[in-house]
Specification:
5-stranded antiparallel sheet; 16 strands; alpha+beta
Length: 318
Amino acid sequence: MAFLKKINVKAKADENTGFGTNASSYGGRFVTKSGNANVRKTGIGFLDSISWYHTMLTLPRWKFLIILFAFYFLVNLAFASVYYLVGVEHLNGINATKAIDKFGQAYFFSIQTFTTVGYGHISPSGFFTSSVASVEALFGLLSFAIATGLFYGRFSKPRAHIRFSDNAIIAPFQDGTALMLRLSPYKNTNLTDAEARMTLGIHVEENGKMVNKFYTLDLELDRVNALTLSWTLVHPITEQSPLFQLNEKDIKNTLGEIIVFLKVFDDMYSTTVVRRSSYTFDEIVYGAKFLPMFTRSEDNNKTLLHIDKLNLFERVDL
């Protein structure tokens, strides 16, 4: 494992990254591909560890809709069961004879009460049944208010609609090589004042034990005024780079990770949005270059940004 000692000593390690230095206590990558910290919190109750509002805002769309529909179905099922147990004879308008039909009509009465539609075909009679219907109507109003707020929060939440390339590459650059990765906006948004920062996290041997070391990777260009096309982040591998002495074999056999931070201003929301991602060393392609991903339109009036070419590269000799 001698190659772990080949980190360039001229590079100064960062001490304020927020990641731990004890490599033996760390599992997996530092940051997931989606940009979240690869950490699971324990030693606290489940309900205390979850922010339900943030969870509902960040859930995938299909999971969010399934939860809403499941909640709607189960709540009405519960209230229909209460009406059925109390006795459907206390629901005026139900004239079914079979038990399944009685329960079905009680279920749809529950839906009408929960949504405050109230068609009038069925109405409660008696104190207890009317009380249950009143509680359900109030619960329905509160539930729909919460659901509406969640829909609005998900719809209006500022997001950085930016995609990163699947791989980082080691490519020819000027008279040497450079670490490169590519990103691109993919929606009809106007992004300005983009700033990027790249950090290397790596396991190295120090005083006979493995530790995590972090290094800021200088970029050829770390800021652009407008992010309208793709942007290739380039870290020149010079004598000052911590990657200077690492060859292809070292890259393949070293536990390391490139963490990328991107901050950009979205003028639609008039706020700054942030995106993060990371590349482990096995996601770095040694000896490659990205292929162009924007071209001129046939009528020469537009520039075409081909999002489907974001990950395309070709092999080259270094």
